[in-house]
Amino acid sequence: MTETGKEFDNLVQIVKTLRGEHGCEWDKAQTHESLTPYLLEETYEVLEAIQENKPNKLKEELGDLLLHIVFQAEIGAEEREFEMSDSIRTINEKLVRRHPHVFNGVQANLKEIKQNWEEIKLKEGRKSLMEGLPKTIPALLQARRVQERAAQVGFDWDDISGVRAKIKEELQELDEAIENGNREHIVEEFGDMLFAIVNLSRFLNLDPEAALRKNVKKFVTRFQKVEEDFISRGISMKNATLADMDQVWNDVKQTENHSSIKKTN
Predict the structure, then answer these.
(1) Which of 66, 91, 72, 87 lies closest to 11, judged by CA?
(2) Cα separation, 7 vs 96, whole angstroms
(3) Is 220 found in the same domain as 162?
């Protein structure tokens, strides 16, 4: 057995012990449902480690996520629903079935590989390309995946110019909705504009969720520096004018730009 296999079996046995008669009362009390918030939290921590490019943190967070996978499988086994081996066998069979260009000698380029992937999923029982998308995933990611699936059958813009034109069109329609003051119409047009922007992210080959998260982090960092400036001068931001806060904000941005230039040089 490989080292990975030994460590995986060890993890499975540890979880069984924790859930056993003489195990941990907290672990024994958990269910599929009660663990859901922690599973989601660990998933986001994995994503954060990837975005921050921290291999050591990623190593640890992947272990935490793996624990939850084993934990869920152990509960399934106790309830006689399924075994861990069933989950592993299912994904093994699915990977082989969906990669005929690797395991069955089928010749295909990258575009054909993506098309074949969706066609194979349809043959597995799905009636629509849009089936199988979790309803609980972040809306930006859901929009991205919907667009990717539609593109597999050619329902897509020819190039990025069409996407950019669509964004301008949606922005104009949003402006008109705002002027009309119809709340429901405003929400609809705002959603259309966001959807078009996600399409742009796809053509730029970037993750809209990661891009927005990075921007939020930048805003928080800058705002905290603005707060620190006012605190250092004994001034409450509540008593400051917008012009005063804008000035400090711009000073912070300028300092960041200078630091960035120095690092580049």
Answers:
(1) 66
(2) 25
(3) no
In the chain, count H helices and then E strands.
12, 0
Instruction: Find the helix or strand (DSSP H, E) in which 90 lies.
Output: helix 84-97
Do 111 and 156 form a contact (C-beta atoms < 8 A)?
no
Q: Is residue 117 part of a domain?
A: no
For residues 163 and 200, the answer to whether their CB atoms sit within 8 Å is yes
- Tell me the pLDDT tens digit for each residue of 17-54: 999 999 999 999 999 999 999 999 999 999 889 988 99
* Residue-range definition of the domain harbouring residue 9: 3-95
- Cα separation of 71 and 32, whole Å? 9
Rounded CA separation 102/45 (Å): 32
Residue 131 lies in a domain: no
Asked whether 193 and 187 are in contact (CB, 8 A), the reply is no
Angstrom CA distances, 209 to 74, 135, 144, 215, stand at 32, 16, 10, 10
CATH code, 91? 1.10.287.1080
| Under 8 Å between Cβ of 51 and 210 | yes
Determine the Cα–Cα distance for residues 138 and 47; give it in Å rounded to an integer. 13
Low-confidence stretches of the chain (pLDDT beneath 70): 260-265
Rounded Cα distance, 64 and 43, in Å: 9
Give pLDDT, residue 138.
87
Q: Are 152 and 126 in contact (CB under 8 A)?
A: no
